[in-house]
Write a structure and sequence with these properties.
Number of strands: 7
Strand order of the largest sheet: 4-5-6-7
CATH topology: L,D-transpeptidase catalytic domain-like
Helix content: 10-25%
Number of domains: 1
Order of helices and strands: HEEEEEEE
Oligomer: single chain
């Protein structure tokens, strides 16, 4: 009886994982730099578009295909050559960070007036 239960469990687990891999969709974010917009897709379906700030000519937003490397709530900002800025209203990263390349990411904002402008290499939302 114990072997039958184990076999049933193994088969159930295999079917569960098979369903996930076949039915899963790829979520993606597309940053349209000239349009100052972020588009969020589930599979091929556009779910939401957000206005964003992007990099200026001296600090350009990187172009290419990237994977998310980290996600943080209430991140600390580590500006080069200056003291770290802890989470809070003075932090230009806002309350969220989605890192996609060394030092680059999509993040919140403590200054809504920058949305729709060229502000820094990261993408402000």
């Amino acid at each position: 009886m114990k072997k039958v239960v184990i076999c049933i469990l193994i088969i159930a687990v295999l079917f569960a994982f098979a369903g996930i891999s076949q039915g899963s969709t790829t979520n993606k974010i597309i940053i349209n730099i000239p349009a100052f917009s972020l588009e969020y897709y589930e599979g091929e379906t556009l779910i939401k578009t957000y206005p964003v700030a992007v990099g200026r000519s001296t600090s350009q937003t990187p172009i290419g295909d990237f994977q998310v490397i980290n996600k943080l709530k209430n991140p600390t900002w580590f500006p080069k050559g200056r003291q770290p800025v802890p989470p809070g209203p003075a932090n230009p990263l806002g309350t969220r960070w989605i890192g996609f390349k060394n030092g680059y990411g999509i993040h919140g904002n403590n200054n809504p007036l920058t949305i729709g402008t060229m502000a820094s290499a990261a993408v402000h939302i």
